[in-house]
Each structure stands twice: as C-alpha cells, then as structure tokens.
Design a protein that fits this description.
The longest helix has 66 residues, at 2-67. This protein is of the alpha+beta class. The chain is built from 6 helices and 30 strands. The chain is elongated and about 120 Å long. It has a 5-stranded antiparallel sheet, with no helix packed on it. A 5-stranded antiparallel sheet has the order 23-27-26-25-24, with no helix packed on it.
C-alpha cells in the first residue's frame, strides 16, 4: 500500500511539472507577442505624427489657395466675383466620367435628382446607360427605392400655335414636373401624374385642371384608364391605387417591390403592371394582391405592356419583347432587338391586327408580329423622306436618319405620330402599310432643354405630347 501511494504521488508530481512547463512556454509566447505589439504601436505612433505634420501643411496650403484671388477670366468667375456651379459648364462626357465612380445608391437615389440635366443624363443618355448598366440592374432589382424630389407646380400657361391638325387648335399647359400621362377613352379627360405625388385631372377642351387626386406618397409614374373609365395609378414606391369616377380611392394594390413603370387594363377586369425590376404582376377582379407574377428574361425596366386576345406583350428597356399566352401565361415568344427601347405600342399593320411598334435608341422604327409570323424588322427613316413603308427593313447612314424618340399609332393603324429629338412632331397618314407625311410641327416643346417624353393618340385622332414641364394637345 505504501509503495502504491508513493507511485501515485510521483505520477501527480510529474503531471504538475508538465503543466508548469506548458504555462511557462505560453507565458514566453505572450511576452514575445506583447513586445511585438509594443514595437508596432511605436511605429504607428511615429507614422501618425508624420501624417499629422503633412495634414497641417496641406491645411495651410489650402488656406493660402482659398485666400488667393481667382483670375477674372476663369470659368468659375462671374460678375461680382461669385463662383457659379461647375456642373453648369462641364460637358456631358466629363460628367459621365465623374458619375461613373458613384455607387448605385448614390447614382440613382441622389445624383439623378440633382437637376433635370443630370436626370436625363443618367436616365436617357445611351452612352451612360452602357457605362453603368450593371448599377442600373442593381437599382432595378428592388434593393433600392427612390423617394423623388417634391417640386412645386409652375403657374398654368396656355398658348396656341398657327399650325393646325385636322382643323383643331394646338394648345399647351405647364404643370411643373410630369412623370406620366393617360387619356380617358372618351378623350374628355387627361390624367397627369406628377413628381410631387399628385394626379391632375384636366379637361382636354379647355386645358383647365378639374380636380386633383391625392394619396400617393411617391412620384406617380404610371397611369391607365380602363375601358369602364376607372383610373389606375402606380408610383415609384411600388404601390398602385384604383380610383372611382368621382375621384375617390377604391382600393390599393400592393405587390411590387420597386417602382411601377407600366400598367395596362385587360378585357376581363384584369390589370397587368410592370416595374423597374422586370417583374409583371397580374391582378384579377377586385383583388388587392397579385394573383400571378411573371418575370422577364433580362430583369430590366418594363417600358410597355399590351394585352391582345390571349396574349400579353411586354417590352423592357434593354430591348427584350416577351409574349405570354393562355391562362397559364406560358412564354410563347421572345425577341431581342439591337438597341435600347425608347417607345412601345401595339397597333395594326396592314392586315395584321396586332403588331408591336418600337422606337429604338438608334432612332429606328421596329416591328414584330405578336402572332410570331412577322420577323423582327428595323427601319430608318431619312430626314428628308416624306413617306415610309411600315414593316419593311431599311438601314440608312446615321447622319441621314430621322432622330425618332417616340411613336403613337391610331387604333385603325392608318395614322402615325412620331416625335424627334429636336422637338418636332410629324403626322403620317396612309393605308396601314404605306405612309406619307401629312403635317409637321417644328419644335413644339414647352421647354427646349427637355425631350418629348411620350405621345398619346386617342380613338378619334386627338393627340397628346408631353414632357416633364407640360403637355401639348391637338
């Protein structure tokens, strides 16, 4: 027993010695680490003292430069020695080169809201779109939401023109910043969605504001009037609202995760809406939640929707046209054009009742049959041309093309209105295939610094052109 106790005691002593050796080794390691840390801290303090000296020197130089007089011929100098905003005289190319360094959030939620020039540079410039296409896809994916600037309306300003179209007078009215426009089926009312979240109801005969519809909390970016006369609006916060004939809100439609860009009414009490992220929602009956969600292939901004028969046609900004068919909305056809899309509508073309009319960013007209029988064709109209043949493929020298921006087609397909970058609008009349220029209005823009944002043509020939500063009605 005594020998066993002695053996156990010796074993315990050996174990304690091993633990002590391990602790001493760990202590030595920690001491070395502390020594290294102290050395690094001393080096960092020395670097900090050097940086502080440089900062003080730069602050002194900056103060001297700020106090130094600026030459009178410098671009930043104006009368009285007060500096102007350099963004007013920087060329677009240099602004794009500067904006390229911004993040998606800063670019689309802040930079493009600085002024109208920056907005159009970010939103519409074809070169800029290519440069920050990746960031736009991030913004359009729904991860970012914009609360647009609230801009007060300008005083109403009616004006006339000596030109006439079908013996009617051309009138215009200024509303401030306009984001969307729709016309009632009877063409008696014009609905104008503005950046300050308000919908203005305008009498098309007198151009007087009849009433204002309030309730949205973001820019009213999409409007449509159903065949029954009900107004449906969509906003940049992803919400939609259905309004009664007396202007009272009937119900809110919630389902989009980013801004609504297009709405179309179906024939069976069904609504279709598209958004910045390329998602199309289907609303049946009086449902306040979408009954189906459709997704475009490229996930880019939906610029237009149309419903024809059992087909739903969708066009996105990057040039993808998708057709879904049937009650299950099976993807039937998908086309991809060569450029970005500027305008979209569906109208007859000759004997074909449903043809997609497109305006591309290269200023060409393009057509494709909803039924898939007419292959995609692009047509460039010459500047001096007085006629064109719809559905015919034609390419021209870029310097000789008409710079088309927008297109609108009558319900019978025999009258076409086109808008160009210079603000002129041409009226083309024909048999549905061969069109000749009937009238032209030179630079009808209320604000020459802004492009024409859209054209709307009624069933009886009433034409509405609008830009962010106002609307013009024929």
């Amino acid at each position: 027993l005594r020998d066993s106790l002695i053996a156990l005691r010796m074993e315990r002593i050996c174990e304690l010695k091993r633990q002590l050796a391990d602790l001493q080794s760990e202590q030595n390691s920690l001491a070395a680490a502390v020594k290294t840390a102290r050395r690094a801290l001393m080096e960092a303090e020395a670097k900090l003292r050097g940086v502080t000296i440089v900062v003080h020197q730069l602050e002194g130089q900056l103060k001297e430069a700020a106090d130094a007089p600026v030459p009178e011929d410098h671009p930043l100098c104006v009368a009285g020695g007060r500096a102007t905003d350099p963004t007013t005289w920087l060329p677009d190319e240099l602004l794009v080169a500067c904006l390229i360094y911004l993040t998606a959030s800063d670019l689309f939620l802040s930079a493009r809201l600085v002024c109208r020039r920056w907005y159009h540079l970010v939103q519409r410039d074809p070169v800029a779109k290519v440069v920050w296409a990746g960031r736009w896809s991030l913004y359009a994916s729904g991860a970012l939401h914009a609360r647009w600037l609230e801009v007060g309306d300008e005083p109403a300003d009616r004006w006339g023109s000596d030109d006439d179209y079908e013996n009617t007078q051309e009138d215009g009215m200024r509303f401030g910043d306009i984001a969307s426009v729709a016309m009632s089926p009877c063409e008696a009312r014009l609905y104008v969605g503005t950046w300050n979240d308000v919908i203005k109801v305008v009498d098309t005969r007198t151009l007087e504001v009849v009433t204002e519809l309030r309730g949205h909390r973001a820019t009213v970016s999409a409007l449509v009037v159903t065949p029954s006369g009900t107004l449906v609006s969509g906003a940049f916060d992803g919400t939609m609202r259905v309004w009664g004939g007396d202007g009272t809100p009937l119900r809110d439609l919630v389902g989009h995760r980013c801004g609504v860009t297009a709405i179309v009414a179906g024939k069976t009490n069904t609504l279709y809406s598209g958004a910045f992220n390329g998602v199309v929602l289907v609303w049946e009956g009086e449902a306040t939640r979408p009954t189906r969600e459709l997704t475009t292939g490229d996930r880019s901004k939906v610029v237009g929707l149309a419903q024809r028969g059992d087909a739903l046609v969708c066009a996105t900004e990057t040039g993808v046209v998708t057709v879904w068919r049937g009650q299950d909305f099976a993807c039937d056809t998908e086309w991809r054009v060569s450029s970005y899309l500027e305008a979209f509508t569906v109208a007859p073309l000759g004997l074909r009742p449903d043809v997609v009319w497109l305006v591309l960013s290269n200023h060409a007209l393009a057509w494709v049959d909803v039924a898939g029988e007419l292959p995609l064709r692009e047509h460039h109209i010459d500047r001096g041309a007085h006629e064109f043949q719809a559905g015919e493929a034609r390419h021209a020298n870029p310097d000789e093309r008409r710079t088309l921006d927008m297109v609108a087609v009558s319900s019978d397909g025999q009258t076409v209105a086109t808008a160009e970058c210079n603000g002129s609008i041409s009226i083309w009349v024909g048999d549905g295939v061969q069109f000749s220029r009937h009238a032209v209005f030179e630079d009808v823009r209320l604000d020459p610094s802004e492009p024409i944002e859209g054209l709307v043509m009624g069933t009886s020939g009433r034409l509405v052109a609008w830009q962010s500063s106002g609307v013009i009605v024929w």
